[in-house]
């Protein structure tokens, strides 16, 4: 019996989709799991798999066409089957005439399983941080057919904060992989299936998808890629003439290049224009090895009389998307105001020089600032606070977040009880955090629980800047560089060393006078550092 395939809902906000590319044509044989088409949603371009078998009898939306979710996309059935009744008004399977429903029920060969077989476990995308909404499979350390023991590392998962190893909680054979390397999916999506060898994976998937938690369209998540498609760069004719000598890349009628999701992600990460890559896959499809083996300029001869316009498109990874989401929410929901001060750093310079003269001891100005902030926060719980819709929380412990720049954005590891740690230990912890942050080895627990944040750009020569509050905290301190300049002391103009700091406050929790008092206390500690050790 013919099956209607409707435009799937491939994201929680998707209302309509565009058919970017058909991989099958009317009359082609379709097997369960074959890629039918590429669908452009409001968030990404995704491959859409067939979940029924038969002949493709009808295509309802041509390439480049756009239609709402649940619109007739295609019909799959038996060769030569009459589908005129289905085409009259686009009747869905649920709305089929009663006679056809009866036929379906009477010809059903066996009941569909409603429980997952004993010993079989569906492994879902884990929530590896408190803000994680979706994850990307960075690499699989096991392949289908491998034996998995409890505690074995299954895969590396890229979250919004870090790339983490994901351990198996079960033992058995890896029967199924639901996401390929480079693909993304929401938390709780099917990641893998582990169980006894010979298990009917399709039956398990059918039960898992119709389980208590809502799941995506059947089997769609097995081939979904969240990576936006890289777009070829158009170069105006008057600027440059490029003659292509050799290429095997296949493009669609609307100019889209055929490439696997992983190839698209790799090309975007490397800044490679897919239109210049030769595809070795089926029908000229670009695959992973094509991007890995791509050499710029090979097969292209250019006659360039002048400059060439060039851009690089980089897909937003989970960290970048989460940073954008959280900082936008903070900036537009918290009423920021800013208090700027300039501290005399002569005493701090002398203090650091004397401290570092001790054997095997080395502290930085950043260590002094973090220690001073921790001490000041203990005396000003109004600044060391957090805003929630129904309450304000005053913290009486100082957990200072330290902003660390990494390749993909910014992470904030947390120095717990910063007021109680001695200066050399602060330096050791901050260096350890920074090194592991750049290698994406921080754990979610090390980036949670801050009550205040320090962002220091002084080492880059930045003298003054403002930061966005790391919610739900009430304040963040921006630290500039130490500058040598003329200052007035005891009525005389002398050479001095100063540093500018800017405190950003949430006016819902921190009044102007409260923020000013905190900065006065902080000034006392930094301009007279010995008081922090008493």
For the sheet with most strands, the description reads: 6 strands, mixed
Q: Name the CATH superfamily assignment of the largest domain.
A: Chloramphenicol acetyltransferase-like domain
Number of strands: 28
Shape: elongated
Strand content: 25-35%
Radius of gyration: 30 Å
Please describe what this structure looks like.
It contains 10 helices and 28 strands. It is an alpha+beta fold and 534 residues long. Helix 8 (365-379) packs across helix 9 (423-438) and helix 8 (365-379) packs across helix 10. The N and C termini lie far apart (84 Å).
Question: Which characteristics define this entry?
Answer:
single chain, 534 residues, alpha+beta, OB fold (Dihydrolipoamide Acetyltransferase, E2P), Dihydrolipoamide Transferase
Secondary-structure blueprint of this entry?
Blueprint (H helix, E strand, L loop, with lengths): L2 E4 L9 E7 L6 E2 L4 E6 L4 E5 L4 E6 L6 E3 L3 E6 L6 H4 L10 H10 L13 E4 L9 E7 L6 E2 L4 E6 L4 E5 L4 E6 L6 E3 L3 E6 L5 H9 L31 E4 L16 H10 L17 H5 L7 E4 L14 H16 L2 E9 L1 H10 L9 H15 L5 E4 L2 E4 L5 E3 L1 E3 L2 E3 L2 E2 L7 H16 L13 E5 L18 E15 L2 E15 L5 H16 L7
Helix pairs in contact: 8-9, 8-10
Nutshell version of this structure?
The chain is α+β, with helices and mostly antiparallel strands. Helix content is 21%, strand content 28%.
């Amino acid at each position: 019996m013919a099956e209607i395939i409707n435009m799937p809902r491939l994201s929680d906000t998707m209302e309509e989709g565009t058919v970017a590319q058909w991989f099958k044509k009317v009359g082609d044989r379709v097997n369960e799991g074959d890629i039918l088409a590429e669908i452009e949603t409001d968030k990404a371009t995704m491959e859409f798999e067939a979940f029924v078998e038969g002949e493709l009898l009808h295509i309802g939306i041509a390439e480049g066409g756009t239609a709402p979710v649940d619109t007739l996309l295609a019909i799959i059935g038996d060769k030569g089957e009459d589908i005129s009744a289905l085409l009259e008004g686009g009747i869905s399977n649920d709305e089929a005439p009663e006679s056809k429903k009866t036929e379906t029920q009477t010809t059903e060969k066996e009941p569909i399983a409603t429980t997952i077989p004993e010993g079989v476990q569906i492994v879902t995308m884990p929530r590896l941080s408190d803000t994680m909404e979706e994850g990307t499979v960075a690499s699989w350390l096991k392949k289908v057919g491998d034996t998995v023991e409890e505690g074995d590392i299954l895969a590396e998962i890229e979250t919004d904060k870090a790339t983490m190893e994901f351990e198996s909680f079960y033992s058995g054979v890896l029967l199924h992989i639901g996401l390929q390397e480079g693909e993304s999916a929401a938390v709780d999506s099917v990641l893998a299936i582990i169980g006894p060898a010979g298990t009917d994976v399709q039956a398990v998937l059918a039960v898992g998808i119709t389980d208590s938690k809502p799941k995506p369209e059947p089997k769609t998540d097995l081939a979904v890629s969240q990576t936006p498609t890289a777009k070829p760069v158009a170069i105006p004719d008057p600027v440059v003439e490029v003659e292509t000598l050799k290429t095997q890349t296949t493009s669609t009628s609307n100019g889209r290049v055929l490439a696997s999701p992983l190839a698209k992600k790799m090309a975007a990460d490397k800044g490679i224009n897919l239109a210049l890559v030769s595809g070795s896959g089926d029908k000229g499809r670009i695959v992973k090895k094509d991007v890995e083996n791509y050499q710029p300029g090979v097969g292209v001869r250019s006659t360039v009389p002048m400059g060439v316009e060039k851009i690089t498109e980089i897909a937003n990874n989970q960290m970048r998307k989460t940073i954008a989401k959280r900082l936008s929410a903070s900036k537009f929901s918290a009423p920021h105001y800013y208090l700027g001060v300039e501290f005399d750093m002569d005493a701090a310079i002398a203090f650091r020089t004397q401290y570092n003269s001790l054997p095997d001891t080395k502290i930085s100005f950043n260590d002094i600032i973090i220690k001073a902030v921790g001490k000041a926060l203990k005396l000003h719980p109004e600044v060391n606070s957090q805003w929630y819709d129904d309450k304000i929380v005053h913290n009486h412990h100082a957990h200072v977040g330290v902003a660390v720049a990494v390749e993909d954005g910014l992470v904030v590891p947390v120095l717990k009880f910063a007021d109680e740690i001695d200066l050399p230990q602060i330096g050791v912890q901050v260096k350890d955090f920074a090194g592991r942050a750049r290698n994406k080895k921080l754990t979610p627990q090390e980036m949670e629980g801050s009550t205040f944040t320090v962002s220091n750009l002084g080492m880059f020569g930045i003298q003054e800047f403002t930061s966005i509050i790391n919610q739900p905290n009430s304040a963040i301190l921006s630290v500039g560089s130490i500058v040598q300049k003329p200052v007035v002391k005891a009525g005389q103009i002398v050479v001095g060393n100063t540093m500018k700091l800017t405190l950003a406050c949430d006016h819902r929790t921190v009044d102007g006078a409260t923020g000013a008092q905190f900065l006065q206390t902080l000034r006392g500690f930094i301009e007279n550092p010995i008081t922090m050790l008493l």
